[in-house]
């Protein structure tokens, strides 16, 4: 189907449902994409293993570049409220090649995480239902995980409004259970009813003293994972009221909510569980995979234990759906500017969503999940560890794009200098450092659970998935697309939209 392009007159002219979301709905989409309960369950134990008592400090340190990059997203979103986000902005700043790879970095992140959160949702659901045998059965896990990917892809196709309504309920459950469990745990510690393993919280946990650069990099890259996803606020910007301002505000607000929640939970877990190497102690290697739900019984009995299991399942399910949303909209924008086949620009006439792109992203995640699951569960686990590289890559590209795109206006005011220059630049440098340091550490064959030819499987997975974008990009170049000739998107191009029935 032919796609004609014209200058945007209002957000949503791509055929998306303009004005469907407000500030609260936008924040909910961002929070649900992060999946805070699942992210904490999956990473807190490993952060503690890296830095011992300094996990809260790592959450704060990782939050700083997240906030700095959120400023970059806000400024770029105000100037160019396009659902392509990193792809569009990096192209306007640096040209089509870097822009395309920036878009690929976002897609890679989504594909990797979707394969993992779908299985996590299934496993924790089985454990909530006391079907532990099914939770350990590979074929059952894969079948249910695949079904969840298909189901959430269908929900995403059905429209942004139904997605928001579902996410409102899921995010309320997540934060409600996390906050209640944390407060109860801290109260028990304060009243000396938490047990002999508990320790008193300390302000020193917020200061990263005694942490080496490698430990810091490893912990920060893990923390980047637990913050990742807030940029979904910008990807649904064209479906948000006041698209030039609301998504940027939502991004900043989302990161603030996350850091407060993560620090609270980290303090509660460390204080209540302590750092012993037996029982629920955080230095017990059996607890590294999930230090969150092990607190359920000791903190609040069977009710809290069940609530935490269900919360992690809901969190992963929520992320499965909300991760598809921004990625599909990214492919929509890439197709509009002719960086991808024009079929990706098709909008469903009834649901007003990029149905084809959504289905393709869901299908890609499903195939990735099936291949890795059937090859090795260790490989699937290493793919999560590698996710931080892709995230650091496209966050860094976005931050640098902000500085370069606005370079001529940086000295017009103090606000421009800091919001468009200094803060994004510092955020970009932080992402670059985290990427390089982590990639260097990941090369070691004993990093993660797999290795190939003396090279760590985490490194191969992380860098390999990014490098895979190069031949895919060259295929698009071979297709003779005008995007790579600089004809469809440049620094001075107005936002373009398709007329698709």
TrEMBL record:
It is a multi-pass membrane protein. Gene3D superfamilies: Amino acid/polyamine transporter I. InterPro entries: AA/rel_permease1, APC_superfamily. This is Amino acid transporter. The keyword Cell membrane applies. The chain crosses the membrane at residues 21-49, 55-76, 97-126, 138-157, 169-190, 210-230, 250-273, 293-317, 351-372, 384-405, 417-436, 456-478. It comes from Williamsia serinedens. Keywords: Cell membrane, Membrane, Transmembrane, Transmembrane helix. It comes from the Bacteria. The lineage of its organism: Bacteria, Bacillati, Actinomycetota, Actinomycetes, Mycobacteriales. The keyword Transmembrane applies. Its main location: membrane. It is found in: Cell membrane.
């Amino acid at each position: 189907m032919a796609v004609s392009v014209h200058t945007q007159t209002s957000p949503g002219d791509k055929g998306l449902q303009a004005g469907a979301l407000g500030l609260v709905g936008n924040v909910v989409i961002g929070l649900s994409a992060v999946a805070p309960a699942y992210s904490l369950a999956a990473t807190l134990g490993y952060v503690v293993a890296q830095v011992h008592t300094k996990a809260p400090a790592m959450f704060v340190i990782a939050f700083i570049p997240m906030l700095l990059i959120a400023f970059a997203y806000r400024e770029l979103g105000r100037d160019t409220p396009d659902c392509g986000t990193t792809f569009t902005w990096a192209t306007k700043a640096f040209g089509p090649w870097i822009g395309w790879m920036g878009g690929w970095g976002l897609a890679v992140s989504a594909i990797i995480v979707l394969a993992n959160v779908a299985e996590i949702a299934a496993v924790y659901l089985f454990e909530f239902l006391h079907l532990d045998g099914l939770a350990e059965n590979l074929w059952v896990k894969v079948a249910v995980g695949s079904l969840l990917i298909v189901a959430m892809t269908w929900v995403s196709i059905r429209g942004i409004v139904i997605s928001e309504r579902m996410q409102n309920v899921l995010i309320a459950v997540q934060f409600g259970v996390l906050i209640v469990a944390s407060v109860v745990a801290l109260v028990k510690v304060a009243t000396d009813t938490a047990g002999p393993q508990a320790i008193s919280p300390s302000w020193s946990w917020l200061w990263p003293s005694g942490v080496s650069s490698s430990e810091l990099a490893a912990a920060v890259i893990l923390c980047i994972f637990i913050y990742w996803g807030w940029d979904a606020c910008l990807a649904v910007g064209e479906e948000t009221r006041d698209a030039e301002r609301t998504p940027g505000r939502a991004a900043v607000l989302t990161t603030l909510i996350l850091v407060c929640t993560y620090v609270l939970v980290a303090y509660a877990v460390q204080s209540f569980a302590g750092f012993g190497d037996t029982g629920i102690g955080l230095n017990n290697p059996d607890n590294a995979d999930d230090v969150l739900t092990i607190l359920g019984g000791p903190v609040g009995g069977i009710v809290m234990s069940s609530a935490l299991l269900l919360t992690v399942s809901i969190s992963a399910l929520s992320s499965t759906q909300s991760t598809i949303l921004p990625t599909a909209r990214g492919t929509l924008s890439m197709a509009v500017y002719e960086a991808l086949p024009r079929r990706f620009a098709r909008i469903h006439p009834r649901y007003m969503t990029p149905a084809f792109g959504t289905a393709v992203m869901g299908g890609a995640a499903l195939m990735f999940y099936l291949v890795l699951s059937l090859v090795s569960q260790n490989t699937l686990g290493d793919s999560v560890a590698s996710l931080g590289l892709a995230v650091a890559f496209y966050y860094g590209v976005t931050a640098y794009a902000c500085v370069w795109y606005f370079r001529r206006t940086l000295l017009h005011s103090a606000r421009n200098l800091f919001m468009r220059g200094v803060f994004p630049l510092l955020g970009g440098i932080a992402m670059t450092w985290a990427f390089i340091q982590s990639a260097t550490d990941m090369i070691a064959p004993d990093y993660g659970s797999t290795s190939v030819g003396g090279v760590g499987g985490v490194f191969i997975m992380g860098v390999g998935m990014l490098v895979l974008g190069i031949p895919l990009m060259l295929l698009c170049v071979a297709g003779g697309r005008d995007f790579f000739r600089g004809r469809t998107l440049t620094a001075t191009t107005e936002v373009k939209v398709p007329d698709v029935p």
